[in-house]
Amino acid sequence: MQISPLLESLVEALRCLPGVGPKSAQRMAYHLLQRDRHGGIKLAQILHDAMVNIGHCQDCRTFTEQEQCRICGNIKRQQSGQLCVVETPSDILAIEQTGQYSGRYFVLLGHLSPLDGIGPNEIGLDILKQRLANESIKEVILATNPTIEGDATANFIAQMCDQFNIVATRIAHGVPVGGDLETVDGTTLSHSFLGRQKIDLS
Amino acid sequence: MQISPLLESLVEALRCLPGVGPKSAQRMAYHLLQRDRHGGIKLAQILHDAMVNIGHCQDCRTFTEQEQCRICGNIKRQQSGQLCVVETPSDILAIEQTGQYSGRYFVLLGHLSPLDGIGPNEIGLDILKQRLANESIKEVILATNPTIEGDATANFIAQMCDQFNIVATRIAHGVPVGGDLETVDGTTLSHSFLGRQKIDLS
Ligand SMILES: [Zn+2]
Ligand SMILES: [Zn+2]
Fold first, then answer.
1. In angstroms, rounded to a whole number, what is the distance separating the alpha carbons of residues B124 and B110?
2. Any signal peptide, and if so, which residues (chains A, B) (predicted)?
């Protein structure tokens, strides 16, 4: 029973949002119509604006509506000589929130996957190579995901870095801090064994 | 650290949706940018269209982009002689899903709440009164929420019906007392329809 075709379309369209099923889409549509039309109109405008105008930073490939993102444009970060390679733009947010890193980034927007036709150029490694050649980068930190593909991608980039005599490091993978050893999956536990370090008693 | 002001605005704007906190808003924004820009643009257009063009049915006050909603315009439903009074447009959806009812509706868009300045005219009872006077309505089914305010509103409307010698019934208390009509399962709602009783004004 379609009471309002436009309302039905809205419920359907809201389901493009991740984690939104038919019930929550319905609740969202009725909530906006009943209590927050102003917020709904504003969301529509910003959403359209973002989808059309947000592209990729020419240097690091993260999302930005400008040619260069604010991190790449930051002189202090340029002077750090560090470049952190991640798979997705949201990985940058996660790393920024740690407050541990103050260099720049490079976003692959994926990982190497030859069987799916995703080679070095598909993940921007041609752009990365040029940066390694032209900028004064001292260390490339490989923060791709600890999966088979992420590891393979990290290794591939490490070899590229070697050609330019640039140090490549891989972030440590292991038992999460505060985590419980017996609840950690086997792969993670293997990583944490392989990545063990000598305890410095000095 | 604002990497992209427009992306930050989008995350903020998405929070007008019920049940969407900072983390899910962020996940939604990145998901659309990375995997479904087409869906995002379509959502923006439909959302704007809906917020601007969806008004209220002149007869029953539910949401519709036309003057009269499809239920009110349905001749079979007009001939049923039944009118079901609910508090919100989404209550109609819940009742329609039971398949137990084939009459028309009247949406109060609230309930009587004198302390908040919500009197009969604020919940459309002037319009309802005209309908009771002019249409051939045999029964008014009061399906307001089983709360103190919902009960008071039902009683008020029952007295109005009495002036026009129209039978007023209240849906049965299969609906949990203090509960919210739209969250009740279909079976319970069906039972409460079948068990409706005439309101005794004595
Ligand atoms: Zn950048
Ligand atoms: Zn209507």
1. 9
2. none
